[in-house]
């Protein structure tokens, strides 16, 4: 059960980080990951180029990883 709690905490942290993003980045990320869209499908639905969507998702993933690493370092220092 402790693994489940840590997974839920990680998902909550990711959700908080995603909510900090600029609206465009947040919405593209949510459309891609939470609605199981492909890059091509999302490009067709939105009229946004596949390259632009790809770069946005790549940038958001990097930002989330950076923030999770920062939070992890802070939690280790506070332990």
Give a written overview of the molecule.
By secondary structure, the chain is mainly alpha-helical. Helices cover 85% and strands 0% of the residues. The protein is built from 4 helices and no strands. Helix 3 (39-46) crosses helix 4. The chain is elongated, with a radius of gyration of 15 Å. The mean pLDDT is 89.
Number of extended strands: 0
Order of helices and strands: HHHH
Poorly predicted ranges (pLDDT <50, ≥5 residues)? none
Cα-based radius of gyration, to the nearest Å: 15 Å
Strand content: under 5%
Structural class: mainly alpha
Overall form: elongated
Helix content: over 70%
Q: What is the tally of helical segments? A: 4
| Overall mean pLDDT | 89
Report on the biggest sheet. none
Amino-to-carboxy terminus distance = 21 Å
